[in-house]
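Subject: Protein record for review, amino acid sequence with backbone structure tokens
Why sent: The fold of this protein is of interest and is recorded here as tokens.
Enclosed: The protein record, placed directly beneath this head.
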Amino acid sequence: MPTCTALIVAAGRGLRFGGDLPKQYLHLAGQPILRRTVEAFLRHPAVTGVRVVIDPAFRDLYDKAVDGLDLPPPVTGGPTRQDSVLNGLEAMAGHAPDLVLIHDAARPLVDAQAISDVIAALETGPAAIAATPLADTLKRGTVEGAGIVSGGTVDRTALWRALTPQGFRFADILPAHRRAAGLNLTDDAAVAEEAGLAVTLVPCDQDNLKVTNQDDLARAEKLFLARLGDVRTGTGFDVHKFAPGDQVWLCGVSVPHDATLDGHSDADVALHALTDAILGAISAGDIGLHFPPSDPRWKGADSAQFLRHAADLVAEKGGVIAHVDITIICERPKVGPHRDAMVARVADILGLSPARVSVKATTTEGLGFTGRREGIAAQAAATVRLPLILE
């Protein structure tokens, strides 16, 4: 099988979108658009590597967006998209793949079929691009925007919209880009054409849209969630007893108390229950399977890493966490004064809006071990959405 690297172009500032952040770092269904795009290629079995080209001014946003993904260091972009692509290709030249797929970071809805079809087309030609035939009637007007039809109807026969990914044999596209430097061509297919390479049009799903404005983002979110028709719920329950100390960890927040919780990690009973709930929703076992208490690596560990691991497993399946609900069961300490901080912390760990996180507390009216103030229990429920696969 040929080696194939996806080159994700994410160096633009998205001025047409507006706002303070480049659009690729805005969230789509709880995760940055860039992460959604990168994951689409990381999941594909024929893609052997992913490189991302960024504006270094936004390196902090990039690092947060791809946290936990197995990626090499990003490539510094140039003043134009064409320059950025060339920088990316040059960065790959030392360990050149057989094939390269060049893709816009702002196209997060690219599906596996489009990737497969572009790669397949490179078996018989040097270049291939995802494209859709024009379906709408075209009119030539007097001015941009609202104007008068002056040129009549444009014949749309044989007209296609060029999308991405655009795939090439690496040995052909790098020298083509080098020769085209400074020509200001509109896409990589135009670079290939300038070099005399035949470009194959590969029909793809119309949903492979490019997010350029707020309406596009809203549409992309609807389309993304519509793909996730397999809705699952998982539950978790955990208990930890008290031990001498002066604080307890609950939902990733340090709460002052006249005791601590006894456990191999930080004994965050709430995060442990929630981790099990998410793992249960995707049928991935329990927290002990992934982080055995017998392993010294987890002694005193921050339970946030357990929860992030569970969330990453959902993302690897192409899913999203839709909502989480935690109930902390204890007489003391009082949870109410810390509830907002707990919600914010869980939301931050999972990359969710706080509106998708619920933290509640209750007592057992003096009954049982929690009523006797011997420890704390927690139960949790998690709802996840996964791609619908009929089995």
